[in-house]
């Protein structure tokens, strides 16, 4: 009896709750049965607390307002902020990566850049920057074919596209590293990087860049001429695409069933249920978790 009591106390359950369960099941009950009963009691008390809270709030509602006033706070917030471009993060597009991806790695397709820019403009983004090396302004060559090159000039006039510097020294082209421009601007502006590149070399340069790239990299696919970013940029337990692109989330996340074990769950990020207390934790890969535990 005392062993079961001590074990349940270590898990954070109240003494009177444990005593009530042991009196109900008997001192000879298996520890798994005791824990199951404790979890059931905990869920029951939580649901009763929520129902009592909802009943008290329902009596405080004013009478006779317009329907919009009594809408849920999430919906009213969404109405206010949904079309507000100030709530959208700046977008920094890796032009070379997007153009080569649209060209199936065989050529530099400037139309792919235009498709990506149009997608973000339709979403309401106004702060969009595309980086492309300056030597892409040169005439197309058989070893480096470029299609729809006039799009680059058009986007440059619209102040969306920026050419990274390059020059010729004694007949040899000297090119600045455009990836560093992309990551630096996105980091300084607290924006989103649009690329299928992981920038592993830049992740090793600065630890703050590593964390930023892991949390703010938006990958994509092209289906013919359709630009398609994923609906879950950071995995199925991460934010939706709409909230990923916003500074403040608007659409409520996770309508999944909450975990019955709550904070006592030991499955970690592998748990298939929703954990509200883990919403702000970064989604680390299994390899990163192992490295951190090895350091500890």
Features:
RNA endonuclease activity; Rossmann fold; 3 domains; alpha/beta; 296 residues; single chain; elongated; 12 helices; two-stranded parallel ribbon; 12% strand
Describe this structure in words.
- The protein is α/β, with parallel strands linked by helices and 296 residues long.
- The protein is 43% helix and 12% strand.
- It contains twelve helices and eleven strands.
- The chain has helices at 2-10, 15-25, 31-59, 73-81, 95-102, 110-122, 150-157, 178-189, 200-203, 207-216, 241-244, 286-295; strands at 91-94, 108-109, 128-133, 146-147, 161-164, 166-169, 172-175, 192-194, 217-218, 221-223, 226-228.
- Helix 2 (15-25) packs across helix 3 (31-59) and helix 5 (95-102) packs across helix 6.
- Residues 55-83 have low confidence and may be disordered.
Helix content: 40-55%
Looking at the chains present, what oligomeric state does this protein adopt? single chain
Shape, principal axes of CA atoms: elongated
Q: Report how far apart the termini are.
A: 36 Å
Secondary-structure element series: HHHHEHEHEEHEEEHEHHEEEHH
GO molecular function, one term: RNA endonuclease activity
Keywords: Endonuclease, Hydrolase, Magnesium, Metal-binding, Nuclease, Zinc, Zinc-finger
Domain C3H1-type: 253-278
Pfam families: RNase_Zc3h12a, UBA_6
């Amino acid at each position: 009896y005392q062993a079961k009591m001590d074990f349940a106390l270590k898990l954070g359950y109240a003494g009177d709750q444990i005593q009530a369960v042991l009196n109900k099941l008997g001192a000879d009950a298996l520890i798994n049965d005791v824990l199951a009963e404790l979890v059931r009691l905990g869920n029951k008390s939580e649901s009763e607390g929520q129902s009592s809270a909802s009943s008290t709030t329902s009596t405080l509602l004013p009478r006779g307002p317009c329907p919009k006033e009594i809408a849920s706070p999430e919906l009213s917030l969404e109405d206010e902020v949904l079309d507000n471009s100030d709530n959208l993060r700046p977008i920094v597009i890796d032009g070379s990566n997007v153009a080569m991806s649209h060209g199936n790695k065989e050529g530099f397709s400037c139309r792919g850049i235009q498709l990506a820019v149009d997608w973000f403009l339709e979403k309401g983004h106004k702060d969009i920057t595309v980086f492309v090396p300056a030597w892409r302004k040169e005439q197309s060559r058989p070893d480096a074919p470029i299609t729809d090159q006039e799009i680059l000039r058009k986007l440059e006039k619209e102040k969306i596209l920026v050419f990274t510097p390059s020059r010729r020294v004694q007949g040899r082209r000297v090119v600045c590293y455009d990836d560093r421009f992309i990551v630096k601007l996105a980091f300084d502006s607290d924006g989103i990087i649009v690329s299928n590149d992981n920038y592993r070399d830049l992740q090793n340069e600065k630890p703050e860049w590593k964390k930023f790239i892991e949390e703010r990299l938006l990958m994509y696919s092209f289906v013919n001429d359709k630009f398609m970013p994923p609906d879950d940029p950071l995995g199925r337990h991460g934010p939706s695409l709409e909230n990923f692109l916003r500074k403040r989330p608007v659409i409520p996340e996770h309508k999944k069933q909450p975990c019955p074990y709550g904070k006592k769950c030991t499955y970690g990020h592998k748990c298939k249920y929703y954990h509200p207390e883990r919403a702000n934790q970064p989604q680390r890969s299994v390899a990163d978790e192992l490295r951190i535990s090895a350091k500890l």
